[in-house]
Please model this.
Amino acid sequence: MKKMIKPSRLRIGDTIGIIAPASPTTKEKVDLGMKKIMALGYKVKLGKSCYSNHGYLAGRDDLRAEDINNMFNDKTVQAVLCLRGGYGSMKILKKIKKNIIQENPKIFIGYSDITALHLLINQYCNLITFHGPMAVDIANGLDDFTMKSFLRTITQTGTIGCIENPKNIKVHCLVNGMAEGEIVGGNLSLVTATMGTDYEIDTKGKVLFLEEIGEKPYNIDRMLTQLALAGKLQESRGIILGDWKNCEGSRDKNNLSLMEVFQEIIVPLQKPTIYNLQVGHSNPNITLPLGLKVRLMATEGKIYIEEGAII
Model:
């Protein structure tokens, strides 16, 4: 197993580079996000993609890829924060210069469509990345729990310890047991979309994390079935089901509930599994290091990380 690289921690006064690898947003959102990040004590460097627009993309593919390569190559930038998700990250995977990332490891943060970039960076660059809030989320305002999780994970080098939901939100155990391994995954749609490509997710001996937003149960069923047919669920040691925002669909005789889908596809695999960890499109939203070894205590509904994610 390849040794994963930990990026250096973020310090007050460091520079955060913001890029838009997927969809665009408004200039007002970009400026507000930048203002709030600077108020936390950090400098900000904007990529050209942040103010760019090419239909549903934040600029053309070459521009968005160039932003990532440049931010990792820039010695004055200590962390790379994605502006938002949407769509577009998969289109630039072949344009990312993996050697630049390997030679300049630094904090990389995002979620949703950014899952495609997490998979590339984790698997090909052996760099731990962070599934967490993006610049638009910061612009919209993070609750205290989310902000504390975000800053704790990328600024403090000590052992992370137990990852838990806020006390009023329960984590459910679907399959009892304990599993250990590197945590991989992200958004279900993006994980599934990489199947059959050079960037297909590797789940062998790993703990698989999945989350989703706005997909009906039959779509969730189809995507999980594809992963099962490819052996990706079976090869994992355990499964973490995060937040599934707006994925329930209507309750009628022609539908299945989201939990029924999980019960029919995931539970029979008898992999230690939990559900409702607040990671994904949720609010609050836990910042989760990807590529780091975790111990999933499914029976207790807890995850333990016995090291820090940064140095």
Notes: The first strand starts at residue 15 and ends at 19. The mean pLDDT is 97. Residues 161-305 form a domain with the Glucose Oxidase; domain 1 fold (CATH 3.50.30.60). The CA atoms of residues 203 and 236 lie 5 Å apart.
